[in-house]
Amino acid sequence: MYRTLVNSIKDDENFKKCNNNFNITKEDKEKGKIECPKCHSENVIKFGFYNGIQRYKCKNEDCCKTFIDEKSNPFRYSKKFKENWEQYFELFIKGLSLRECAAKMGITLVTAFFWRHRFLADLCEKSYIKKIGSYVELTKLVLYENFKGDRGYHGEERDKIIVVNALNDYMDISSIIAGRKFLGFYEIRDNIIPRIDAKAYVVGFQDSRLKMFANALNEIRNVKLREDINELKIDLAYSNKVKKWLIKFNGVASKYLDHYLSWRAFEYKNNTEYERKNIFSMKKVYSQINVKAKISTYISWGNIKKRTIEI
Ligand SMILES: [Zn+2]
After folding, report:
1. What rounded mean pLDDT belongs to the chain?
2. pTM: predicted TM-score of the whole model, two decimal places
């Protein structure tokens, strides 16, 4: 069965499908090519960053203007955000609630919520891993669909949303929103396999389908467990920990679930360094996560609200 699934994958095709959850700024990027504001040439190149904002340079020899793309300028329209985001980030990263952030910053709850999601959208985009490799552990997280903040009646029935968390020995974390109601073969084919590197050794935990899938995938792809790894367990409880962590938000809207999953992964990576001292068959533990924020994408409030869960 799995062999058929794996063989039926046309990589790129399926990949697109599971990648479209990432609609941040992509929309903006697609809206129009970047053009030089002076001569309107589209012949421009990326030219470093300024305050975390992508700069461009016009390649038209008579012009050579350098400029930033206003469409991706995270600070356009919001002077308040520009002036306060660093301070806000400090509170945010400490894990203060929205209400506390709002009170300390003298902003409304709605603004605090918006700012939170601008950070998270940015974080989500930056931490996105196309294909996770090396030694990969898969665990399953099941949540009920949540319509928090959405107006209108959504019925009594709430679907289960299945997230598969993939964690590797480099501490890369890929949280894949993998299925609605259940995790079947097609969900695995369309949403999980394209996110796993062809040379990765995969281990499934807790869930029998994940276990079977992982074994089958290794066999089909003929990948063996590296000797230096040998029964290493990174964190079998990762998914359970995420579930507990989510409790403090009193439920999160499913359309923002990817934001929260990225946030959790980010926090986890920042906090686990010392907890992990006992496992040293591992490469090295990754302390270089940049806790100081650099926000380099723009997403409008409208686009944050308009999000949907893509499963
Ligand atoms: Zn130009």
Report:
1. 80
2. 0.75
Q: 122 alpha carbon to ligand 1 midpoint, in Å?
A: 29
- The whole-angstrom separation of Cα 140 and Cα 239 is 6
Residues 256 and 216 in one domain: yes
* Cα 190 from Cα 40, distance rounded (Å): 41
Q: Which of 85, 107, 127 is the last residue of a domain?
A: 127
C-alpha span between 239 and 243 (Å, rounded)? 6
For ligand 1, the distance from its centroid to the CA atom of residue 49, given in whole angstroms, is 18
Dist. CA 226–CA 203, nearest whole Å = 13
143 & 113 share domain = no
Specify if 31 maps to a domain.
no
Residues with CB under 5 A from ligand 1 (ion): 36, 38-39, 41, 58, 60, 63, 65
Rg over alpha carbons for the chain, rounded to the nearest Å, is: 21
Is residue 112 located within the same domain as residue 143?
no
Q: Is the pLDDT of residue 123 over 60?
A: yes
Cα of 82 from ligand 1 centre, angstroms: 28
Residue 13 lies in a domain: yes
Q: What's the gap in Å between 29 CA and the centre of ligand 1?
A: 19
Domain containing 110: what range? 76-127
57 found inside a domain: no
pLDDT tens-place string over residues 156-165: 788 999 999 9
How many other β-carbons are positioned within 10 Å of the β-carbon of residue 6? Answer: 17
The domain total for the chain is 2
Q: Are strands 201-204 and 160-168 parallel, antiparallel or unpaired?
A: unpaired
For 175, phi and psi rounded to 5 degrees? -100, 115
Q: Is position 65 within any domain?
A: no
160 and 114, same domain (yes or no): no
